[in-house]
Design a protein that fits this description.
The complex is a heterodimer. Chain A contains 11 helices and 20 strands. In chain A, the strands form 5 sheets. Chain A has a 6-stranded mixed sheet with strand order 5-6-7-3-8-9, with helices on both faces. The longest helix of chain A has 16 residues. Chain A is globular, with a radius of gyration of 25 Å. Chain B contains 13 helices and 1 strand; from the N terminus they run αβαααααααααααα. The longest helix of chain B is centred in the middle third of the chain and has 28 residues. Chain B has one domain. Classes of the chains: A alpha/beta, B mainly alpha.
């Protein structure tokens, strides 16, 4: 009872889905309702009113995590994982319920928070450290360690706007990884970055957990979940679906994977909104074509350097990418501009299975990964005489193959002498 | 447990500190202790604001001087020279500069402050810290410009043969008055800007209007005695006239200044309370 790190009781978070297309209030609307209107309306749904459409991102979440536990949180897109982490990080307030958090908390909700392009790497490390709650003394002490962890010694005194997005992320993660906090909340930062970066991140998280700190870890990477976490909480539709053995919860999650789950709108970093996603056909037959289409709306001026669609198998491994650069990258967007991107994946060489499609965008200052949809590939039509092996035995790739067999009779050795 | 020996830092960042996160509604008092615990962050953000501002402009520090000096020159030509605006017996240029000094600080402080939250949306949506720090750092970074422009005023005083008197000691109190007003207005605007994005277009107009209502280009004595009370409801009026008295060595209009300072304090309390009340919704809408 007294050894808890996080104790949640009846946590709930409600959002109102705005009817109008407009994202922000204008003064005109507000003058009629008083200056606290936009702040109020998001909260107090008038009783008995059916007018406002609301969703419960989280409903009645209760759990206790003790000091030193490493807990994974899994769930389908939109299940409420990020919302839960945001509440625990005090970025967003719950609508109902309460949670008690013991000790210092660090959150990695996105890598590179607070980095300013005009400042040098050194200045940004101090800035980032302060933002994450480190004192200047702490940052100074760990500075060299952080810089070598990120592999940016040569560039530490150049402005960060000259860094590649990989360097950005390594440096940002290096700072966050060296925080001396009791609780670490990690939200899928591992999805951004190349394989070696991800390995480093996982290793560091493992190291942190090994020192007795409490870690809450949201990811789609089931292998990482299994190796790092002693306990897994499965969220679905804002509620706790399961809480216990990693293997059990993961299997439960995988078996429930629903088809054609798509988001309405998603934020990509701070400047872009992803909307009107469509994946068709979904389900698609193995060997067939599938068309992806989505719109990006710019809230601020932004230059998009690169983008890819990344396909993951539901268990986590990255299967393949659709390089979107030939579509016309890099390009600039002004505030209010939108861009419609279409991509076609032809003759999909993947077995029938559940996959996850995510969009990776690099806009110079940073990069971000957001899930677009869950994709289902259904079995290809076969006229084979042989019944195909089950997908789990065939792996992920569907090869186009030919094979033949010739038989030779054994010759008598006496004949050739 | 050596509770009494725990530092404030421990209290806010210590390993046993329990934070309760639950829905809150209604007005909330400012948590001074929490702000103090995060002072490192305030310092770092203020320094960042300053560095970034100066790295981005070619003129750098010179901008802190150019703005009030250019305005002084233009006003002196048109108001002082051509329109023959009275200036309480002092040379018009220095008379207007003494007012431009705090006014420039105030105008820049509330403009930067109003846009600060939206400009730091990436911080607000990713990390926890008392949100008040963001507009605070905008106002803080303006103080550096103020100090530079104040040095110019001291030089101008030498040029015009105005001696430095003990009245100068009142300046810190007046600066506090401007800072309070700027914070009160700035935090309120910052919060409003998060909710109503078209507010940023209102701000330049607001600043412009405010300047004409404040005795910057004209002396307070221009306004008939019976109406002077109306002038001093504007907290900047008392501060501006106070600055003139402090630098130019003429008697202080104490009642006017007191009224303005009182209103400045009230604006501060109101602005910050409004900010605190709506702060927790920021991440939901930013």
């Amino acid at each position: 009872m007294t050894n808890y790190a996080i104790r949640a009781e009846g946590l709930s978070k409600q959002y109102i889905i705005r009817a109008s297309k407009q994202r922000y209030y204008t003064l005109r609307e507000a003058l009629a309702k008083g200056m606290t209107a936009p702040f109020k309306r998001l909260w107090n749904v008038p009783r008995g009113s059916a007018a406002a459409e609301t969703i419960w991102a989280l409903k009645d979440i209760s759990f206790q995590i003790n000091r030193g536990e490493v807990v994974g949180i899994i769930g389908h897109n939109g299940a409420g994982k990020s919302t839960l982490l945001k509440i625990l990080s005090r970025i967003v307030m719950p609508s109902e319920g309460r949670v008690a958090v013991r000790g210092r908390v660090a959150s990695l909700l996105e890598v590179g928070t607070g980095f300013h392009p005009e400042l040098t790497g050194r200045e940004n490390v101090f800035l980032n450290g302060a933002i994450l709650g480190m004192t200047r003394g702490e940052v100074r002490q760990k500075f060299d360690e952080m810089v070598s962890f990120a592999d940016v010694e040569r560039f530490i005194d150049t402005p960060v706007k000259h860094y590649s997005s990989g360097m950005h992320m390594r440096l940002a993660f290096a700072v966050a990884a060296h925080l001396e906090t009791d609780i670490l909340l990690v939200d899928e930062v591992l999805a951004v970055g190349d394989a070696s970066f991800q390995k480093k991140c996982l290793a560091k998280i493992e190291n942190v957990a090994g020192h007795g700190r409490t870690v809450l870890f949201v990811s789609h990477n089931m292998t990482a979940m299994q190796s790092l976490c002693g306990r897994v909480i499965h969220l679905a539709n804002g509620k706790i679906e399961g809480d216990g053995e990693p293997q059990h919860e993961i299997n439960d999650y995988l078996s429930r994977a629903t088809v054609s789950q798509m988001h309405n709108k998603r934020k990509v970093g701070d400047a872009l909104t992803l909307m009107n996603m469509s994946v068709s056909p979904n389900p698609v037959k193995s060997g067939g074509d599938v068309r992806f289409q989505f719109d990006l709306l710019a809230k601020n001026p932004v230059q998009l350097n690169e983008a890819q669609l990344v396909l993951f198998a539901l268990e986590g491994p990255r299967v393949g990418i659709v390089d979107l650069r030939p579509a016309g990258f890099p390009f600039t967007m002004r505030t209010g501009d939108s861009a419609r991107i279409e991509a076609v994946l032809r003759s999909i060489p993947l077995v029938d299975h559940q996959y996850r499609v995510a969009l990776w965008v690099d806009w110079g200052v940073s990069a971000s990964v957001v899930d677009i949809a869950d994709l289902t590939i259904s079995p290809a039509q076969t006229n084979e005489l042989y019944a195909p092996y089950p997908a789990s035995a065939r792996g992920l790739v569907e090869f186009k193959t030919e094979c033949s067999l010739k038989q030779y009779r054994e010759y008598s050795l006496i004949a050739t002498g | 447990m050596m509770d009494d020996q725990k530092t404030l830092s421990d209290l806010y960042f210590g390993h046993d500190r329990v934070t309760i996160i639950e829905p809150q509604s209604g007005w909330r008092l400012l948590d001074w202790r929490e702000l103090w615990a995060y002072r490192d962050l305030l310092y770092v953000l203020t320094v960042r604001d300053i560095k970034v501002r100066y790295k981005q402009t070619m003129l750098g520090f010179a901008w802190a001087i150019i703005q009030p000096v250019m305005m002084m020159v233009v006003f002196s030509i048109f108001f002082g020279g051509l329109a023959k605006m009275p200036s309480d017996g002092f040379p018009y240029p220095i008379f207007v500069y003494a007012a431009l000094l705090p006014w420039t600080f105030f105008a820049n402080a509330i403009t930067n402050s109003a846009n600060s939250l939206v400009g730091s949306a990436n911080l607000v949506s990713k990390v926890y810290f008392p949100r008040l720090i963001i507009p605070l750092s905008s106002v803080g970074s303006g103080l550096v410009d103020f100090a530079i422009a104040a040095a110019i005023l001291l030089l101008l005083m030498v040029y015009y043969g105005v001696s430095w008197t003990l009245s100068l000691l009142v300046v810190p109190i007046l600066v506090a008055g401007v800072v309070l007003t700027a914070l009160g207005v700035g935090t309120c605007l910052a919060a409003l800007n998060v909710a109503y994005r078209d507010f940023r277009y209102v701000i330049p107009f607001l600043v412009q209007f405010w300047m004409f209502v404040t005795p910057v280009v004209y002396p307070a004595s221009l306004v008939p005695r019976e109406w002077q009370w109306a002038l001093f409801i504007n907290p900047m009026a008392g501060v501006i006239e106070g600055f003139r008295s402090a630098f130019l060595g003429r008697p202080f209009d104490v009642p006017g200044m007191l009224v303005s300072l009182a209103i400045a304090a009230m604006l501060f309390a109101a602005g910050v309370s409004y900010f605190e009340k709506v702060e927790r919704r920021f991440a939901d809408i930013i």
